[in-house]
């Protein structure tokens, strides 16, 4: 059963720029009553909120916080419920990536940070709102943004890949739990895209027949799938193809196909990422981190 964002409360993480901002703009255009923006970049967040208010129609609520901090998530969730109500639509969009060999990762600044932002944050944010979403007995939607890297191994992206494998497994398990427990009015969609032209994967090269996708195209497709309650959306068509071949072919043959034919294993060879203004708590080289 499909729903509309009209009159709804929509919460988006990583909402100050890129894909998160596009989701927020779509929510405003579709008539959401409240659009809640979460991001750690306070300056960009306020600028985005001002632009969204200029579009008219929706109450816009920006919250500057670090989604990897459970205390901050818990406090912000309580404020959201007071200010805008329980979200009808929750979009777990925030993410970071590290592009380097595993042994070059710093244990805290790289490994812990990626797993906390990409994997633990969506779980903790969803947990903060889900009991109330269930209790209301009205249709609700959750979008968890994973990655094609969560379906195929990619050199120089081992920790990011691990984080997105975990998101896919958790997200789809949550979908099943809600359905079998009689709480199917809350529906979960898992987005599994290949590389997108947001700057997050600047320098990366898409595998064979897999061009870098336009952000607006991905948001449009993901939004439609979310509102329809679709379980999974994989973009582009080569993503499900790659997953199918990976499951069918013996490992040595798949390595040849992925490495020499589709060039999956070489996709991060020229990765640079989008430089990010470091916060007081974190400073990383442009080649090491960028956000969606």
How are the SSEs ordered, and which strands pair?
Elements: E1 9-13, H1 18-29, E2 34-39, H2 42-55, E3 59-64, H3 70-83, E4 89-92, E5 96-97, H4 107-136, E6 140-145, H5 158-180, E7 186-193, H6 215-228, E8 232-235, H7 238-248, H8 251-261, E9 290-291
Parallel strand pairs: 1-2, 1-4, 2-3, 4-6, 6-7, 7-8
Antiparallel strand pairs: 5-9
Helix pairs in contact: 1-6, 3-4, 4-5
Describe this structure in words.
The structure is a single chain. This protein has 292 residues and is of the alpha/beta class. It has one domain (9-291): 3-Layer(aba) Sandwich (Rossmann fold), CATH 3.40.50.720. 44% of the residues lie in helices and 15% in strands. The strands form two sheets. Strands 3-2-1-4-6-7-8 form a seven-stranded parallel β-sheet, sandwiched between helices. The protein has eight helices and nine strands. Mean pLDDT is 88; it is low at 276-291. Pfam families: adh_short (PF00106). It comes from Arthrobacter jiangjiafuii.
Quaternary form: single chain
- Classified in CATH, the superfamily is NAD(P)-binding Rossmann-like Domain
Stated plainly, the CATH topology is called Rossmann fold
> What fraction strand?
5-15%
What best-fitting shape do the alpha-carbon axes yield? Answer: globular
Strand adjacency order, main sheet:
3-2-1-4-6-7-8
Q: Number of helical runs?
A: 8
User: Into how many domains do the coordinates divide?
Assistant: 1
Beta strands, count: 9
Supply the helix-strand structural class.
alpha/beta
Which sheet architecture does the biggest sheet show? 7 strands, parallel
Order of helices and strands: EHEHEHEEHEHEHEHHE
CATH architecture verdict: 3-Layer(aba) Sandwich
Distance between the termini: 30 Å
For the CA atoms, what is the radius of gyration? 18 Å
Contiguous low-pLDDT stretches (5 residues minimum) are: 276-291
